[in-house]
Amino acid sequence: MNMMRTAMLLATMTALFMGVGYLIGGSGGMTIAFLIAAAMNLFSYWNSDKMVLRMNHAVEVDERNAPEYYAIVRGLAANAGLPMPKVYLIDSPQPNAFATGRNPQNAAVAASTGLLQRLSHEEVAAVMAHELAHIENRDTLIMTVTATLAGAISMLGNFAFFFGGNRDNNNPLGFIGVLVAMIVAPFAAMLVQMAISRTREYSADRRGAEICGNPLWLASALDKIARNVERIHNPEAERNPAMAPLFIINPLSGERMDNLFSTHPNTENRIAALQAMANEGVGRPAQRTAPQPTAQRSAPSRQQGPWGGSPAEQAAPEQPRPSGPWGRNPTGPKGPRS
């Protein structure tokens, strides 16, 4: 079923790409656009994950330079029955994370230093479980390829402004076609991309809660991430907005709307769904708990969650820890806990 959805989506995005080409250059432009789209689909299948990681300046880490972070992912992958993905760290103060890769055997997860600094151990585990759920559901390929094609359609729409007004370009609709190529086509690509992202986030939330063992951990993590994203700028995401649906929370500043134009479901709605899961006792199967870095760490109570206080106290952002394995540059000097 997922393969069928992926094929249908790629066909839709390719048709949009061809439509923009037709509006810019008629039948010749449509043919060129088809060839470009086919090449991009093939290239994206094999390289889109590397492109996304490179655009975010992600650095691969292991158990030597990020022991707790790596151990969390390893334990959660075992809980989910997935191959161990590659683990990356993004040097960004904005707390966020994403997963990428064409299949579970070639997958990667990435978390920002801001996420590891501001969230508790259990909350980090819940976020990474959410990303592993995307890998298990094979969302990563379709979301990454869609992001690549949506960005290309938007760029092609911009080209229409410069090349679409020529009387000799076989454009059948003239200036109206140029306007459609500039505005409507990129807008349609954005809607397709956002609709896919929003429908998949709820599924990943639910499966992620099952993998980590407690829906309340993910509920608290989403709340903290959303509060910090509102005030912490992410310049890489702003420069490449097509990547926004890949993240667990929209990294773009000022994105508060829960409507047709939002790349993610409303955070409050996601939290409410997770709280309902907790009330129903869903997501707490045997032996599915957050991987613990030390034997001394005690399990949090189900009533309080991993925060150790009331919901109002839990919502307050934590101050970054000056040391430890979370926020350290993996390529820089190693701390005493490495």
UniProtKB/TrEMBL annotation:
Gene3D superfamilies: Metalloproteases ('zincins'), catalytic domain. Residues 289-304 have a biased composition (Polar residues). It holds the Pfam family Peptidase_M48. Keywords: Cell membrane, Hydrolase, Membrane, Metal-binding, Metalloprotease, Protease, Stress response, Transmembrane, Transmembrane helix, Zinc. The gene is htpX. It is a multi-pass membrane protein. Its cofactor is Zn(2+). The keyword Hydrolase applies. One of its GO terms (cellular component) is plasma membrane. Residues 281-338 are annotated as: Disordered. This is Protease HtpX homolog. Belongs to the peptidase M48B family. Residues 66-277 form the Peptidase M48 domain. The active site is at residue 131. Binds 1 zinc ion per subunit. GO terms for molecular function: metalloendopeptidase activity; zinc ion binding. GO terms for biological process: proteolysis. It is found in: Cell membrane. HAMAP family: Pept_M48_protease_HtpX (MF_00188). The chain crosses the membrane at residues 7-24, 30-46, 141-163, 175-196. InterPro entries: HtpX_protease, Pept_M48_protease_HtpX, Peptidase_M48. Zn(2+) binds at residues 130, 134, 201.
